[in-house]
Specification:
Layout (H helix, E strand, L loop, with lengths): L6 E5 L12 E5 L4 H6 L10 H8 L8 H10 L2 E5 L1 E7 L7 E5 L2 H5 L6 E5 L1 H15 L3 E4 L12 H12 L1
Parallel strand pairs: 2-3, 2-6, 6-7
Antiparallel strand pairs: 1-4, 4-5
Helix pairs in contact: 2-6
């Protein structure tokens, strides 16, 4: 099957995931095509996000969206992305242009979030440029768990880095 290399305008179609007692916020850039299709975060089967968090918190890998939500609630983790709308080719962060950022302050007002982490370089640069001026909260940059980043970080590397920051 040929890959689609056309630029498309994409709107983030599902809401942030958070609870009033969420303490940390993990921000990606824009959900992958697979995540957009399933309306939840980090749903590409090759993305290592859920494997990393499961290892960090020493829990079984959540399989369903419902299990993933319960996992996040137990650990007081909120998920969202930096981008509300952008032009993108497939799921490639490198292709992102014409960004409209999400309203991160709106969930900070409704939660106990004390720390913000970005998952990947694109999310970090977008946070610094578009969101930090509104929140004045420094975000800690974590490596992307995307399959595109697999050559740079092993699963063990990611687990160690995330554990040192999240726990």
């Amino acid at each position: 099957m040929a890959k689609n290399h056309q630029i498309e305008t994409v709107i983030h179609t599902f809401p942030p995931f958070y609870q009033k007692d969420s303490k940390i916020l993990l921000l990606g850039s824009m959900p992958s095509r697979k995540s957009r299709e399933q309306s939840f975060y980090y749903m590409h089967p090759q993305n290592r996000f859920w494997r990393v968090l499961s290892a960090v918190y020493q829990e079984e890998l959540p399989a369903t969206i419902e299990e993933k939500k319960k996992f996040l609630i137990r650990h007081r983790i909120a998920l969202w992305d930096c981008i509300l709308k952008c032009d993108i080719v497939g799921s490639s962060d490198a292709s992102i242009k014409n960004v409209i950022p999400t309203d991160i302050p709106s969930i900070l007002d409704k939660t106990n979030i004390k720390k913000i982490f970005t998952t990947g370089k694109k999310a970090q640069s977008l946070y610094e440029k578009c969101i930090y001026p509104k929140t004045k909260i420094e975000a800690i940059s974590l490596p992307s768990t995307s399959p595109a980043n697999a050559a740079n970080y092993s699963l063990e590397d990611l687990v160690e880095i995330y554990k040192n920051n999240l726990k």
